[in-house]
From TrEMBL:
Species assigned in the record: Capsicum annuum
Record protein name field: RNA helicase
Origin: domain of life: Eukaryota
One Pfam family cited in the UniProt record for this chain: HA2_C
Catalytically driven reaction(s): ATP + H2O = ADP + phosphate + H(+)
Molecular function (Gene Ontology), one example: RNA helicase activity
E.C. code: 3.6.4.13
Residue ranges of every copy of the Helicase-associated domain listed in the record: 68-142
InterPro entries linked: Helicase-assoc_dom, P-loop_NTPase
Gene3D superfamilies noted in UniProt: 1.20.120.1080, P-loop containing nucleotide triphosphate hydrolases (3.40.50.300)
Length: 206
C-alpha cells in the first residue's frame, strides 16, 4: 500500500495487514453465488490481535499537497461551493454556457425544489412532468428555475423557499465572478458566454 510519511515528506510502499472489516467483507464473497469456503492465510491470533477494526481512510495516508495546490490553481478556493460544483462553474465559462451552469449549480446547492404531498402524489407527479427535459435532469432544473422566474406563484408543487434560496445563491456567485473579473460582467458577456447553451451535446459534456 502506498503511504505518505509526513516526517520524510515521501511516499513509501508498505506491506500492511488488512483490517477486520476488509477480511470479513472478503469472506462474505465465498458462497455468494454458490457453495464456497473461505481460506485465511493468517493465524487466528493475527486476526484477533493484529488487525485494525476498519481500514484507514486513504485521505489520511495520502499527500494532499498536490490536490490542494491543483484546486487553488483552478481558482476553486474563490467559490463557497463543493469542489465539483466550483469546477462546473469554471467549465461553464470555458465552454460558453455559464448562464445555465450558474443556475444548475445554484439549484444543486439547495434541497429538492419539488414538493410531493402524501395525499396528492399523482397531481404532483403530473406537475413535475411539465418541467422534465428528457435528455438531462440538470436541464430540468434549469427549466424549473426559468419558468419560476417568469411566474413566482406558479404551481402548488414547488418549494418556493428553496427556489428563492437558489436565486440568492446564484446572485452571490455572480457577484463573486464579477469581483474575480471573469468575462461574465455585462449583458453582452452573459449572452456571449451562453452561446452554447442550446448545444445539448456540449452542455451535457460540461
Amino acid at each position: 500500500m502506498k503511504v505518505y510519511n509526513p516526517r520524510t515528506g515521501m511516499d513509501a510502499l508498505q506491506v500492511l495487514p488488512i483490517s477486520l472489516a476488509s477480511a470479513d467483507q472478503r469472506a462474505s464473497l465465498a458462497g455468494r453465488t454458490g457453495p464456497g469456503t473461505c481460506y485465511r492465510l493468517y493465524t487466528e491470533n493475527a486476526y484477533k490481535n493484529e488487525m485494525l477494526q476498519s481500514t484507514v481512510p486513504e485521505i489520511q495516508q495520502t499527500n494532499l499537497e498536490y490536490v490542494i495546490l491543483f484546486l487553488k490553481c483552478l481558482g476553486i478556493q474563490n467559490f463557497p461551493l463543493d469542489p465539483p460544483l466550483a469546477k462546473l462553474l469554471l467549465m461553464g465559462e470555458q465552454f460558453e454556457c455559464l448562464n445555465d451552469v450558474l443556475t444548475i449549480v445554484s439549484m444543486l446547492s439547495v434541497p429538492s425544489v419539488f414538493f410531493r404531498p402524501k395525499d396528492r402524489e399523482e397531481e404532483s407527479d403530473a406537475a413535475r412532468e411539465m418541467f422534465v427535459v428528457p435528455e438531462s435532469d440538470h436541464l430540468t432544473l434549469v427549466n424549473v428555475y426559468e419558468q419560476w422566474k417568469v411566474n413566482e406563484y406558479m404551481g402548488d408543487f414547488l418549494q418556493v423557499k428553496g427556489l428563492r434560496r437558489a436565486r440568492d445563491i446564484r446572485s452571490q456567485l455572480l457577484d463573486i465572478l464579477k469581483k474575480l473579473e471573469f468575462h461574465y460582467l455585462t449583458i453582452y458577456a452573459i449572452n456571449f458566454f451562453s452561446s452554447h447553451a442550446l448545444n445539448l451535446w456540449l452542455f451535457k459534456f460540461v
